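User: These chains co-purify. Model them together.
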Amino acid sequence: MKLAAAVLLIFTLVAFAAPAIAPYDPRATPQSETQKNLAPTASHPFGTDQFSRDVLSRVIYGARVSLGVATLAVLLALTLGAAVGSLAGYAGGWTDSICMRLVDAMLSVPRVLLLLVLVATTGPLTVPGIILLLGLTGWATTSRLIRAEVRQLKERDFVLASRATGTPEWRVFVTHVLPGIIPQILVSATIALATVIPLEAGLSFLGLGVQPPTASWGNIISDAAERPGDAWWVVLFPGLAIVCTVLAVNTIGERLRIQFDARSAARTARRDPIS
Amino acid sequence: MRRFLVARGAQALGVIAIVATLAFALVHVHVAPGDPFGESLDDPTNTAALHAQQMHTWGYDQPLPVQYVKWIGNLARGNFGWSHSRNRPVGEVLRATIPRTLLLMGTALLIGLLGGVALGTWQAARRGTIAERVSGAVALTLLSVPEFLVALAALALPAARWHWFPVSGMADPAGQDSMNALARAGDVLWHLALPAGTLALLAAAAISRYHRTAMLAVLPEEFVRTARVKGASEFGAVVRHALANSLGPLTTIIGVLVPALFGGAVFVETIFSWPGVGRMMFDAVHGNDYPLVLAGVIVGSVLVVAGSTLADVLLALVDPRVRTGA
Amino acid sequence: MRFHSVRRCALVMVSSIALVAGCKGAEGTAGGGTVIIGSGQDPKTLYPPTADNAQATEITQLLFQRLADRGPSLNTLGDSGYIPRLAERWEWSPDSLRITFHIDPRARWQDGHAVSAEDVKFAFAVYTEKSVGARTGAELRAVVDSITVADSATCTAWFHQRSPEQFDELVTSLTPLPAHILSEKWRDSLAVNSFSRNPVGNGAFTLVKWEESVRLEIAPSPSYGGERAKLDRVIWTFAPDAQTLTKQVIAGESDFVENVPIGDATAAAKEPNLRVIPLGRYAYNYLQFNLFDGASERPHPLFADRALRRALTMALDRQLLVRSVFDSLGRVGLGPFVRAQWAADTTITQIGFDRPAAAKLLDSLGWRAGAEGMRARNGHALSFKLLVPASSAPRQSFAVLIQEQLRLAGVKLEIEKLDNKAMGDRVKAHAFDAVMGGLNSSPSPSGLKQTWTSTAAREGGFNYGRYESKTFDAQTDSALTSRGKAAAKAHYRAAYQIIVDDAPAIWLYEPPLLAVANTRVQTGAVRPDTWWFGLAGWSIAPGKHLPRDAAPTKSP
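Assistant: Joint model of the three components:
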């Protein structure tokens, strides 16, 4: 847990301080003919790619893009998910039915497929475009969890009592229900993060995500996909960065779940992200 | 039970209809930059006139509502339209690709289930030991690796470097016609090993974690203790009773795993050239083949809805507590 | 390769499936052999009029013969060097407005019907019907007026006017079709589609089986009148990923891969059992400037200035760019032509790389270096956007490297990546500053007219940057109508020199097209323009037979 938090903290710092840390300009192709596809050495600890760019610097700058995209997309997805989930759960009735059918439809399409279709209709994406797409496709799971939580909270004595005394609905919601769903939102955040980081990497790997020359962990890897096997360093290091981040997020998420959600063991594993 | 089935079926159909409509809207909104005949910009023979004529032939110049009504009407009759990139009816493409994807996902799910349940059971029984914690950490790590990285590694080492398995494809292109049925099945299995193995590894990791938790929830329960008191060995108690009682939750995870496996199949099929629905989607997106893209989305959602519906039904059948209403 | 099959037997046995039958080797036994070709995608159709992607082109040309084919000299003027195919001979009318073809009496369709002159006439009707959407229909309509039949073995093509390349245009644009099968139903798209899945051709090969996105198998055609192909089977296998194709050929799963990415070719060259075969590709790529401000008639604020265009050309080390992306395998572009064309001229005076001279020229134009060395004039930065197609890896690589080289010259370049259609829309609407363009031409240099003249700058042409030069136009027209090769060449040279000096584009590279073949396949000399023409002569080297080379037997 501590280790996981430390990993995330370090990666975040690296992302923020990228210009200060990176040994080279991640886009510079100084010796495009002689210095390309170099194995790791002291001057290039992670080697160089096919354009002679320093892979370490690209991974460092890639942290900015990959983590930034993931964080913002998750924020968007959580906001949407919490809003829809709260609305459906609290209002009930028709609103609930309509929202949940929409959620059913969203969840019935594998997210990768949905993203493929969206990318097919938009063409190569800008970074804000990717954030938007990942956010817009990621809220359904969250909203379902939040809805369940809100429905439970709604029936609790203190909420019923508060409503009985004539407190306005919005006020009941803000004072009694909202605080109750925050743990669920935190747990959802870790699930969403652990899903979005590999997704962004996967899309970029397929050439459909962040577009070069901007570096993201996914497209650093896809830059190397043209070199069969012999430029392993271009795949391994960004790959490790992805795995470490997601593992750290998963570890923290698991701890949070145990802490906040000890009641229902069965629900825990159901949310294991593997896609 | 029948009533439950009918209601569940109707709900499933409703969801698929919503998906189909939303997908159509998405694909045909005319911000879409791609059109199915705009491929080759560098080719002087691809003239504007030829292009306009192709668009007309295939009805892409009609108003959207007209296109939609035609499309959904055909869809209801089981006609998915015409794939331009493959020059054949979409239905034909689906008939070829769906079984391949089902084979891939089914194999992965089966191996994943066997491996995951075995590991999860063992972990639950050995709770607290170092081996259990290490294996748990390994499973969590595996869950943190994107499918495409696993697939890339499997392609780079066992296939391309060590030549243990074929690099790609579904069957030996030269030998398959002269093989007997058994040999042909073996050949397909041999090609299936890496792509299915990649997905199975991730499925097993997810299932083991889930199953371990479910087992721990059941283990302390009264009847397991009763079984132990009755003299059954601890192993027997764990396996027979606890396992049987956690099968219910297990069906739930299968429903949840289907979309994840399908998503993974897009990457795995593309990387290993497994000619299934995932690779079809990837090609269709690149070729701006709208009817094929739409068909892919619908197939995906049917698969997912079928998975979760089946899981619900199984849950009702399998879990003794659900059955007795406890 | 022996290890391969042995290990496979072992593995299969470990998995306890009795598969001995599948591994039953026939190593070294007789049989013409099987060649497996790794390919990126299926042919879209095997119907010659609409065959468009590379796979469709090569496979239809193996299944169907044309009247004649270009010879290895790649001449496109007159008819010298052309190889007779369906037509065993032909003669010209004195005024060159008619050519009469005599069909080879041995030529048979694969259903046994003799190939007749009617098939040529019928094909012409199909190709020139607009609703068919034949790729070469427009060209045929422009050149040939009609085809008449004298008897079943003789037909005559009537041309609108004589031109130096009229023979080439006819024979490369028209593939005779079986009238006895299609004449009743060629307007029925379902029937045509079914024909395109199970074509009846007249070539050296016949289609055996096509499992979409898995494999396509052809075998020597028993009805072919010429020499039987040496191989028993040729099988295309399909994988969308270029990297996978290379891994297959390295692993021995396939024997031949066409169009290998450059990095993969370098890796393949290290394998002792593989060799890299450079193929010719009649494509050249360039960075094209828009000389006008968008679609308007106002001159472009930067690129209307010829001196600025020349300065930017000077600022690029094209040799280094090409070596960086293609190693030693690519070639620097010399102008709007490729070296393999007969009119190519490598002595055109180029605008060479000279960074100081470029800087000086930019200074003299008023573009002064400011903060971080970036240039500006009257408060306007020297900056422009470059459109790059997302589908082309080499063009993206070039764009990244050009961005860096221009930065060193104080020029800011923004890369805008678009998918093909979006890019097509932008370019055709002239809504761009500069674009990474490319053209697929042919052994004939005559495409210049449709690509760089002022005619091509108007609606429908490919001169998207709207470069116009009267002297260039005049030289191009003279080149196209010259009868003699020497005269035509002189005019082409003059035209090339004018356009290179005017620099409406930076001529970047001729992309290499590389194939990789297993050394067990004896290919003989591979024609760089059409490698598949020699396929019937390919064979398996003695002692290098694999189990898959055994004569094919059908299981019950």
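The CA atoms of residues 204 and 210 of chain A lie 5 Å apart.
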